[in-house]
Write a structure and sequence with these properties.
alpha/beta, two-stranded antiparallel ribbon, seven-stranded mixed beta sheet, 10 helices
């Protein structure tokens, strides 16, 4: 018999991930699925997929899933949760989706204190469409549209979503984590669980921003991408729990 560590979570479909070698989405998918299984909420959970690499959550989660237009996942999740308030609703979004076209949806869902959970994957580029500069691209980071690096005078500064959401009264749990090593994978799982529990306790909106590698568009090997998160990315996007309301 396989151990719980090697078994596929019940909340994941029994197929192989298609993501690029070294991509963090597969890790994060598993963590979300493990939390759902451990909380015993598979049968009452509804996921909302965004546009980008994260759209493939539709194929991998063995849950009721809904596709949203680009950036609109929090609005779609709001509608589902208000019609079906006993269901557990989460969105799974990338930084190009949530941090750009969807930033207004995110802030207003938080301001309303919607009882939803947001899993926000930050890899600092537009992954699916060719590695263009994203709202979270670091100063000096080269992308396909900033080959000489992001320049603040020309391109502005990266948007720190977790900090902004934590300042809005409707947020109940906000954290930024990473999956660049085993210790931080475990911390990410704990944060995801706390975000779901904030919804289950009807405290408000929960958001977990996860720093995730994109070796293909960073033009790094998978191991180099993990080191880049640790040595570079975390300096701009510090890890930690930024808000946690207790019932």
């Amino acid at each position: 018999m396989l151990s719980p560590t090697t078994n596929r979570p019940r909340s994941l479909v029994d197929i192989s991930f298609h993501y690029c070698p070294g991509c963090g989405h597969g890790i994060i998918h598993r963590l979300v699925a493990e939390v759902i299984d451990e909380l015993g909420i598979q049968g009452q959970t509804i996921g909302v997929a965004s546009v980008g690499c994260s759209v493939h959550t539709l194929s991998y989660f063995d849950l009721d899933m809904q596709q949203a237009a680009h950036g609109r996942a929090p609005a779609v999740a709001t509608g589902i949760k208000r019609v079906l308030p006993k269901q557990i609703v989460f969105t799974y979004q990338g930084d190009g989706d949530l941090g750009a076209i969807g930033i207004g949806e995110m802030f207003h869902a938080t301001a309303r204190g919607e009882k939803i959970t947001v899993i926000y994957v930050n890899n600092a580029v537009y992954g699916m469409t060719g590695g263009q500069m994203a709202p979270t691209t670091l100063i000096g980071q080269a992308t396909s549209t900033t080959p000489d690096g992001r320049l603040p005078d020309r391109d502005g500064f990266p948007i720190k979503v977790a900090e902004l959401v934590s300042m809005i009264d409707g947020s109940a749990f906000v954290a930024r984590t990473s999956v660049h090593n085993p210790v931080n994978v475990a911390r990410t799982k704990k944060a995801i669980r706390m975000a779901f529990q904030a919804q289950m306790n009807r405290l408000g909106l929960g958001l977990v921003e996860v720093l995730s590698p994109c070796p293909t568009n960073w033009h790094l090997s998978p191991s180099e991408a993990m080191k880049w998160i640790e040595n570079v990315m975390i300096k701009s996007f510090p890890l930690g729990i930024m808000k946690s309301l207790e019932r």
